[in-house]
Amino acid sequence: MKYKRILLKISGEALLGEQQFGIDQNPVKMIANEIKKVRDMGAEVAVVVGGGNIFRGMKNSAKLGMDQASGDYVGMLATVMNAIALQSALNQINVDCRVQSAIAMNQIAEPYIRHRAIRHLEKGRVVIFAAGTGNPFFTTDTASALRASEINAEAMLMAKNGVDGVYTDDPNTNPEAKKIDKMTYDDIIKNELKVMDTSACALCKQNKIPIVVFDFKKENGIKNILNGQEIGTYIS
User: Which residues in the chain belong to E strands, given as ranges?
Assistant: First the structure.
């Protein structure tokens, strides 16, 4: 395998399926099956899932008259809901899984403890990191880069919803947008591309963690990346 230990970042919107809001079991089961394939290959898989399918911090908090910090905390709780849904789907296909939350929720998740997370991975368990960093004003992109750095992940895989990499413009609105196969961290930071937060990209750069942006809907996407196939956009 090209990478032994990976961190998979899944957007909350990826769990919407055909719905406008909430969690659709079809994409959840599909993602669980894709994770199982690489876990069975011997890969160590950690996951961070967003919460945008349930609550999007800044946008929704403004509508409800909340301050941003309160909205971000609600968004963190949304990521915990998604983590539990994904854990359930993994358990149903006999994949041992643990949810670790950056906010204490002892009845439903372990507290985030770095060495315990690494030990779970070494034992072949999938670890889902929930509640972001546990702090407002940080996105789940930043949480992903932080956790990837902490667990010594060899790569961060960013699963996008219906987009198979980084483009020069939004391919959904501009048919002339061109896909970029390889780019550097600085390309993301300098051009402020909306692939991920610049702070998350800077953290990956600092810790030399390559990023692969790919379309999670394509079957065997994660498996193909681990087998060394060049799919999506490679950022290093």
Answer: 5-10, 44-49, 97-101, 110-111, 126-130, 155-160, 166-167, 179-180, 182-183, 211-215, 233-235
What is the predicted pLDDT for the residue at 62?
65
Please enumerate in sequence order all residues whose Cβ is within 8 A of that of 31, keeping only pairs 6 or more positions apart, or say none: 10, 14, 15, 86, 89, 159, 216
What is the gyration radius of the CA atoms in the chain, in angstroms?
A: 17
Which residues, in sequence order, are CB contacts of 181 under 8 Å at separation 6+? Answer: 165, 230, 233, 234
User: In this predicted structure, what is the pLDDT of residue 80?
Assistant: 97
Short-list 181, 167, 203, 212, CA closest to 8 = 212
Residues 126, 35 contacting (CB under 8 angstroms): yes
Contact 17, 30 (CB under 8 A): no
Strand partners, 167: 179
Average pLDDT of every residue of the chain: 92
Full set of structural domains in the chain with CATH: 5-235 (3.40.1160.10)
pLDDT tens by residue, 157-191: 999 877 888 888 777 788 888 889 999 999 988 88
pLDDT at 79 (0 to 100): 96
Distance of CA 228 to the CA centre of its chain: 20
Q: Beta strand 182-183 with 166-167: parallel, antiparallel or unpaired?
A: unpaired
> Do residues 13 and 23 make contact, with C-beta atoms less than 8 angstroms apart?
no
Read off the DSSP letter of residue 109. Answer: S
What local confidence, expressed as pLDDT, does residue 100 receive? 98
